[in-house]
Write a structure and sequence with these properties.
This protein is of the alpha+beta class. It is built from eight helices and 14 strands.
Length: 325
């Protein structure tokens, strides 16, 4: 059989962070999380199941990948093959319009796009909420890239109910400015850093407890379209997550000197009367939650410190979508 399908998935940036798994195999998280999907960073992936191919083949950005990278894709595709009764190998072609493994959530869009293409190519045609439980098995943050706007990943209790739900379309004046401090692959993966933090940081239990409060409060603020409250909760939650890493043994920090400069620049902007708030994932890059109508003013200020190509303005991204080949 050969039924090539191609999809685009947009990356998402967590405003309420996911940090820690309670089930390593099923990727069940320690806490629920919430994100904003962005339109400027995305992955396009095609999947075809072909009887003439002996083993799975994986191309990333037009480069044939090695056995290790291909094996990860193969294990993920097996979820769809088993469900659909497919025995054929697959040809996977993926293009990242976001730097890979640099703390810019490339795994979110990457695994979400792979899930979406495999879903269509296999003929399963699962709805997006159900598909999010598959995407989760490839990358936790990919769960949320099924949908555009504000998305919650409910931690759930099992494989079926740990899933994504859309909270709000984000069709109001909201956006994000990304400051790309370093687009190189980070030395310590999120998975490794997460595991060590959960196991060794004395701050972690308190962070978990406060995150459930943050999640309830930010959902109220989103529904009320209270931008400043959304921003304050976002900044606080992200910094608390990084504090848990600093408390790990050995201590872990993804920050670079320019990360600190970027955070200070955001504080300066806020003091000048432009409401904006920073957050960071497991990487050095800083994301600035803002009103989309203020984004160009924010970029104009930031280019006094950073190169223009390091600053990317994003509006809210869309749901996972099929695209023509």
């Amino acid at each position: 059989m050969s039924n090539e399908k191609k999809v685009r998935a947009y990356t998402n940036i967590a405003l309420i962070k996911y940090w820690g798994k309670r089930d390593e195999k099923l990727f069940l998280p320690m806490n629920s999380s919430l994100s904003l999907t962005l339109d400027s960073f995305y992955t396009e992936t095609s999947v075809s199941f072909e009887d003439s191919t002996e083993g799975d083949v994986f191309y990333l950005n037009d480069a044939l990948q090695d056995a290790k990278a291909t094996q990860k894709v193969s294990r993920f595709l097996d979820l769809f093959r088993q469900e659909a009764g497919i025995t054929s190998a697959a040809v996977v072609k993926s293009t990242n319009f976001v730097p890979t493994a640099a703390g810019l959530a490339s795994s979110a869009s990457g695994m979400a796009a792979l899930a979406g293409a495999a879903n269509l190519a296999s003929g399963l045609n699962l709805d997006k909420t159900t598909l999010s439980t598959y995407a989760r098995r490839g990358s936790g943050s990919a769960t949320r890239s099924m949908f555009g706007g504000f998305v919650e990943w409910e931690k759930g209790t099992n494989n079926e109910d740990s899933r994504a739900i859309k909270i709000d379309e984000a069709s109001w004046d909201i956006g994000m400015v990304t400051i790309i401090v370093n687009d190189k692959q980070k030395s310590i993966s999120s998975r490794e850093g997460m595991k060590n933090t959960v196991a060794t940081s004395p701050f972690y239990p308190s962070w978990l407890e406060s995150t459930s409060v943050d999640l309830a409060n930010i959902k109220e603020a989103i529904l009320a379209k209270d931008f400043e409250q959304v921003g304050m909760i976002t900044e606080s939650n992200g910094m608390k997550m990084h504090a848990t890493m600093l408390g790990a043994n050995p201590p872990l920090s993804y920050w670079e000197p320019d990360s600190v400069r970027a955070m200070q620049a955001v504080r300066n902007l806020r003091q000048s009367g432009i409401p904006c708030y920073f957050t960071m994932d497991a990487g050095p890059n800083v994301k600035v939650l803002c009103r989309l109508s203020d984004s160009q003013k924010i970029k104009d200020y930031l280019v006094q410190t950073f190169n223009p190509e390091q600053i990317v303005i994003s509006g809210p991204g869309k749901d996972l979508e099929e695209i023509s080949i």
